[in-house]
Design goal:
Layout lengths: L1 E5 L6 H12 L5 E4 L7 H6 L9 E4 L8 E4 L1 H11 L10 H16 L2 H6 L9 H8 L2 H21 L10 H15 L6 H12 L1 H12 L8
Parallel strand pairs: 1-2
Antiparallel strand pairs: 1-3, 3-4
């Protein structure tokens, strides 16, 4: 009775975040994919989401006649964690949970230059574009901040994910893992191994395979 409205798997970083968290948590849900940047996109999304954006979660499990609608990727993750995952998508320790929430929120609200110059494009490899982007100080500083976040969290937790077990924090940085692969962003051995672990998640492999099979090619990506 859960339905997740998403955009293109190749391009929609915001859609990947709750989708991956829900899959890793073992939740069963229906997905509705609405291709982005099409003439009918906004109207199609507005059938489900009040802000006209993806992702959007529809939960009809408690009241079919009046389903709950949750939009925004972080709100969706918080909701499913409370309602369906018994809190397992955040660290159990209160201090670690606060840190995990902080870095997820930082990704949610920040890194505008990474978004602008290293947009998600899973099926392609663009090392030359990446080198040009990293030559911009504003991009380089944000990339360095992300590398620092990962390094600090992994060193403190011992892995395999940022706070030990997979959490919403990992879901929020999973699109960045794909971006760094697309644009050949240099990573040290520990961060490269972390990126590999994200890609090796079975749901992540399913998402990447679907992204590669999509027919749409969007401009400015």
């Amino acid at each position: 009775m859960l339905t997740l409205i998403i955009g293109n798997k190749n391009y929609s970083s915001w859609s990947l975040r709750p989708w991956l968290a829900m899959k890793v948590a073992g939740l069963s849900f229906t997905e509705i994919r609405i291709p982005l940047d099409q003439p009918e996109t906004k109207a199609n999304i507005l059938r489900y989401s009040p802000n006209g954006k993806v992702p959007c979660l529809i939960d009809a499990s408690r009241d079919v006649s009046n389903p709950l609608t949750v939009w925004d990727s972080l709100a969706i993750c918080e909701y499913v964690n409370e309602a369906y995952a018994n809190g397992a998508l955040w660290p159990a320790d209160v201090r670690l949970r606060a840190s995990a929430r902080a870095i997820a929120a930082e990704m949610h609200s920040g890194f505008a230059n990474v978004r602008a110059h290293l947009s998600m494009d899973i099926r392609n490899r663009k090392p030359e574009h990446g080198a040009r982007a990293l030559a911009r100080p504003e991009v380089a500083s944000e990339v360095e901040r992300i590398r620092g976040i990962w390094s600090s969290a992994l060193a403190a937790s011992g892995g395999p994910f940022l706070f030990g077990p997979f959490s919403i924090a990992d879901a929020f940085y999973a699109p960045v893992v794909t971006r760094f692969a697309t644009y050949a962003v240099p990573l040290d051995d520990a961060l490269a191994a972390y990126s590999t672990r994200i890609f090796e998640l079975a749901p992540m492999q399913d998402w990447v395979a679907a992204a590669r099979a999509e027919p749409e090619v969007l401009a400015d990506h």
